[in-house]
Amino acid sequence: MDITLIRGYGIFDFFRTSNYIPLFLSDYLDRFIRSAEKTHLKLKYTKTELREIILDLIQKNDLQNGGVRMLLTGGVSANHFSPADGDLFIFCEELLFPEKEKYEKGVKLLSAEHVRMIADIKTTNYAFPVWLSPSWKENGAEDVIYHFNGVVSESSRSNIFMVKNGSISTPNNHILHGITRKRVLELAPECNIRSITFEELLDADELFITSTTKKILPITVIDKQKIGDGKVGEITKKLMADFVDMEVKHTS
């Protein structure tokens, strides 16, 4: 009767390990704790305690390069609806990145008119994109890009960036503040964080999405519209290389 199961109400977060080191762990824990507070879910562990548990699990599972998923459930409440004392689960998982060819040639997104509910919280509610997902493979797409009233927000599991005339921009509203997004903003502090229209997106010179499981992944097609010249752009390539260097420094 946990409301995560019967109502779809819970939170999670996910991060990677590299050579047994959890990448950017402090940022992920801060977001997880913040999500718990905003969703009225009681987290029984401090940030320090969570960190120690995670480091212990990484060693016990020999998770040299993989993923760690934290899940806090909504709990069992008297009315089977309101948040209660939930359970915390932490899983160590295998992690597979997109194929090398997708980073070299870019991927396709399908557009969908949608705004994710309480977008700044990483909830377990992915019903809409899961429902859409069978059509992705049929259309040769990697994921979707959300837009509403002509304004772009994010992909179902990623943030999006555009490049036009050498200037980088990323949406500012109705988004999850991704940790990989944060790293890209550190690599490109001149990036404009602003409202971006869907028309602008289609007219971009370069596009890429960012996430824990994709890192920086180029987008070369949206629906049937080729982006720029249809090839991975030079600014995107540089950021991809810079991000690899950032990871190396973090794990050295």
Overview in brief:
By secondary structure, this protein is an alpha+beta fold.
Please explain how this structure is put together.
This protein has 252 residues and is an alpha+beta fold. 32% of the residues lie in helices and 28% in strands. It is built from 9 helices and 13 strands. The chain has helices at residues 3-6, 25-38, 47-60, 100-105, 127-132, 134-138, 179-187, 198-202, 234-251; strands spanning 10-18, 21-22, 67-73, 88-93, 107-113, 143-148, 151-155, 159-164, 167-170, 192-193, 206-211, 215-222, 225-226. Strands 5, 6, 7, 8, 9, 10, 11, 12 and 13 form a 9-stranded mixed β-sheet that branches. Strands 2-1-3-4 form a 4-stranded antiparallel β-sheet. Strand 11 and strand 12 form a beta hairpin. The longest helix is centred in the last third of the chain and has 18 residues, at 234-251. The model has no long low-confidence stretch (mean pLDDT 96).
Index terms:
9-stranded mixed sheet, 252 residues, 4-stranded antiparallel sheet, alpha+beta, 13 strands
